[in-house]
Amino acid sequence: MKHVLSFSLRAALFGLFGAVLATFVAATPAAAQQPFNPTAQAVKEEQLLQQLQQVQGRISIPDAKASVLIQPAGREWRTFHNTTVFWTGAISILGMMGLLAAFYAVRGRITIDAGPSGRTILRFNSFERFVHWMTAGTFIVLALTGLNVVFGKYVLMPLFGPEAFTTVSLLGKYAHNYLAFPFMLGVVFMFLVWVKDNLPSSVDAAWIKAGGGLFVKGAHPPAKKFNAGQKVIFWTVILGGVALSISGLILLFPFYVTTIEGMQTAQIVHGLVSAVIVAIMIAHIYIGSVGMEGAFDAMGSGEVDLNWAKEHHSLWVAEEMGKAGNAKVPPSAVAAE
Amino acid sequence: MARMKFLCDADRCIECNACVTACKNEHEVPWGINRRRVVTINDGKPGERSVSMACMHCTDAPCAAVCPVDCFLTTADGVVLHSKDLCIGCGYCFYACPFGAPQYPKVGNFGSRGKMDKCTYCAGGPEADNSPEEYVKYGANRLAEGKLPICAEMCSTKALLAGDGEMIATIYKERVLKRGYGSGAWGWKVAYKETIAV
User: Which of A11, A190, A197, A253 is the most exposed place for a label (fewest CB within 10 A)?
Assistant: First the structure.
């Protein structure tokens, strides 16, 4: 009995061993026929670029943005910077200058039809003028230093040589970065001071329909403190200024709130909005200086000629005179010497 | 003339970061600047791969195209160098670079990035070869001494290859044919507008 039992146990063990061995023998040739391919599951560059537009992974250094391995979007941003913003800027700015030159050739300087009255009325007080010139002065520096980044190497570098151009551009970069703050403050103040006079009103449609009286001598559609054209300038500065401020702050504090795509987008917004605003501001500067007799005084001394005011801002003059107790001549009006 | 390129065989890279360390040591690169880095994709998952990346010395380099002060130059060997004397630290090259190669010594707020620093392919800068001025600004100029970049030279698994593009492409092709697999030359299509067909 004892022998029989031990024999059957031994047989069972052998059987088990044999079965295990058979499994190995059967399995090994199959594995040898199929060579192990570690890349079968491996990540593929092409696939990642198609799915995510970039390749990103884990990195063992503190610089988080270094975890982006490949971002072909940089190539698109390059095209934007070198082609899109270049031509948008060049065409809008030179185009605007061309239009203004043509306008000047045809229409000439817009004069005061009734001639200067010699009496003036206060149009912008000293605070309004301060806000305007703080914004305007910084805007001009910002615009020139910004244009330098896009066009400087084609226009200025051949004139100065690389070293001097670098010095100018470096100073320009700091001027751009720091003067951005008074500009932003100016946009905020402008909004607070002038928003009440820049809301769309019923007379705007008629003003636009009459072309603002710009194209016909003697035509003067009625307007309040600001006509529809000036309202367009106001909202361009406010909305454009906000877009420039937000995108500019993102660029000023790189990678704080965004990744590389965000930086590229901010730069695209900044570039395109700037190109448009610079072109519009050139028109604003034209009509406020050489384009119209008497217009500069509004932001110069703040006192405009009464006849100019009556022609271009008839409703505003009426309002101001109403305030002064129906007096024919407002108290602030003084005789010119 | 050779056209110098980098190639990282991701099937060999073991993420030891020795290339990063060697680069920092060779050029005395300051803390916070990484001319070369190793990125691990799909970390901890099946099929993860590590790729060592630096400036790829692109054909028609985007950094050079967007630079507002034109501080870049491409050598006869196809190495993209830049002048720290001309750089104004605007950061545009970083936005355009597909490989995150440009580095800046400072954080960058208010445009205070400092002069850009990047992999020079161990070829220094525009200054006289191996002059003290060149070393201070760009590090060693091994290429002028007839040596290849230190990162690839000391790579323990020879994952990172540096040298003439044709030559390293041939080495990579032979490897792929012999072992029967290869996850491709990472970044080549973006940098050189061509890839290695095996």
Answer: A11
Please check whether residue B108 touches A, CB under 8 A: yes
Residue whose pair of structure tokens reads 């301060």 in the numeric block: A130
Residue B198: inside a domain: no
Q: How far apart are CA B6 and CA B52, in angstroms?
A: 10
Q: Enumerate domains of chain A plus CATH numbers.
A: 71-126+180-323 (1.20.950.20)
The CATH number of the domain holding residue B116 is: 3.30.70.20
Tally of CB atoms within 10 A around A291: 20
Mark which residues 45-84 of B lie under 8 Å from A by CB.
46-51, 53, 62, 65-71
Nearest to A176 by CA among A143, A135, A137: A143
Report ipTM (2 d.p.): 0.92
Cα A51 to Cα B90: distance, rounded to the nearest angstrom: 31
Indicate if the pLDDT at residue A7 is higher than 80.
no
Share of chain A above pLDDT 90, in %: 76
- Inspect the interface and report whether the beta carbons of A59 and B49 lie closer than 8 Å: no
Q: What is the pLDDT of residues A241-275, one digit of tens each?
A: 999 999 999 999 999 999 999 999 999 999 999 99
pLDDT at position A1:
45
Which domain range does residue B80 map to?
4-192
Residue A10, pLDDT > 90, answer: no
Q: Is A168 helix (H, G, I), strand (E, B) or coil?
A: helix
pTM, two decimals, is 0.86
Q: Evaluate whether residue B197 is within a structural domain.
A: no
- Taking CB atoms and an 8 Å limit, are B69 and A153 in contact across chains? yes
**A63 reaches B (C-beta below 8 A):** yes
Q: Render A204-272 in DSSP notation, one character per residue.
A: HHHHHHTGGGSSSTT-----SSS-HHHHHHHHHHHHHHHHHHHHHHHHHSTTSS--HHHHHHHHHHHHH
* Rounded CA separation A108/A110 (Å): 6
Assess contact for B78 and B4: CB atoms under 8 A: yes
Interface of A with B in 177-206 (CB under 8 A): 177-178
- Give the A window 140-169 contacts with B, CB below 8 Å: 148-150, 152-153, 157, 162-163, 165-166, 169
pLDDT digits (tens, 9 = 90+) for A134-171: 999 999 999 999 999 999 999 999 999 999 999 999 99
